[in-house]
Amino acid sequence: MTAIRMVSSVLLLVLMQSGAHCARRFRGGRNPQPRRSPPPPTYRADRGDTTESFPLDFTAVEENMDNFMTQVKNLAQSLYPCSAQKLDYDMKLNFLENTSVTCNDGTPAGYYLKESRGSRRWLIFLEGGWYCFNKENCDSRYETMRRLMSSSKWPQTKTGTGILSPLPEENPHWWNANMVFIPYCSSDVWSGATAKTEQSGYAFMGSLIIQEVVKDLLNKGLDNAKVLLLAGSSAGGTGVLLNVDHVAELLEGLGHTGIQVRGLSDSGWFLDNKQYHCTDCVDTVSCSPTETIKRGIRYWGGVVPEKCRQTHEGEEWNCFFGYRVFPSIKSPVFVVQWLFDEAQLTVDNIQLTGQPVQEGQWRYIQNLGIELRNTLKDVPAMFAPACLSHEVITRNYWIDVQVKGTSLPRALHCWDRSLHDNRNNKAPPKGCPVHLIDSCPWPHCNPTCPTIRDQFTGQEMNVIQFLMHMGFDVQKMAQQQGMDPSKLLGMLSSGS
User: Fold this and answer.
1) Residue among 234, 265, 267, 331 flagged as catalytic
2) 242: closest CA among 149, 315, 308?
């Protein structure tokens, strides 16, 4: 009995010492660089997996204390995060089992996977990267951005960042999920279902790639999933809106009715608004958003959600714009959207580099923020900071941006909880907001926005310097607001 009591005390002491050692490594202020401290390992006993064991010999403890302490330390280290340094956190490349579903150039499509043994949560991420909509600009894209049209030079591994990170300090609520990254190689906003033809010269199979990845993952543990989060940024964010219900219907049709399918759309909520300056439609940057999609959907053989297709029959291009397709989506979707999205401003022919913007451009930018707010007001779960940026959920600074005091990871966690409570007929948690949108009217009026750098000097700019760089007239704006210029500057500095 004395020996057992001593074993318990010694084991607790060793675990505390190991914990203190690791805590010293983890402790410290917020670091804007990617964190590389490993998370606690997770283990799963099923599917034939085995883990190294450290049997303890309880006999003759008093006579062989040194050997016993070595055994206890080995056990403690096997259980504590410090031992996880040897684990590999990279996602590994897998090509699709169905070889008929390909990238643009006919090379095999695929995905990167990092399994998390024991976790029943899966995160599938759709990469972004614009698109092409005719033979000429697809040929140009193939010459300059072949990685987005071919798998021929994909690396064997990929390191996850942001919401794909396996590190709890970088990804506090999803770090231990099974992570899947699907590279974008279809150039069709994840909508195509067309094989390669002589006329087009390319395959456009984005929608089919998603379906085949899901089918392959069912043999790798997805069949045991509780939650599947389909996430994506930019074109991948729009791809989420187009495909989340397709994924839910696919799983249900295959008999996996217990998997809760959800969507997370980042920077994919584009507006079909009028450009600041109309130009000839030559490529994806010069064309208006509506014109590129009208041409693209025909070229790709694009597929849109059925209910949205019925609503906009003959004009299915409408379904590529968030506020038009969202009402037809049945699956829960969380929308993340910068109010002053750089990609939106680019296709609207607003250039924010070089000379200060003109007054007409400045009004256009402010109106864009107002338009976006209006389209998002009826979205139940969303996060919309008043920042000038594009994409966020895979950036290492994604945990730092806040709207009304709530970070994006916190808002996503609140959304998870509200969906769980709703399924169990519970009231949503208090003090856990999921509808977050900035009310300040200028780009970067939120002090937690990502850092802006002057493209010519490389120097960081604060919000006042940035607004001055854009031609913002403090005196005039203060007069319009009926306040002292120094008070306005103070409000801008604090993000009020």
Assistant:
1) 234
2) 308
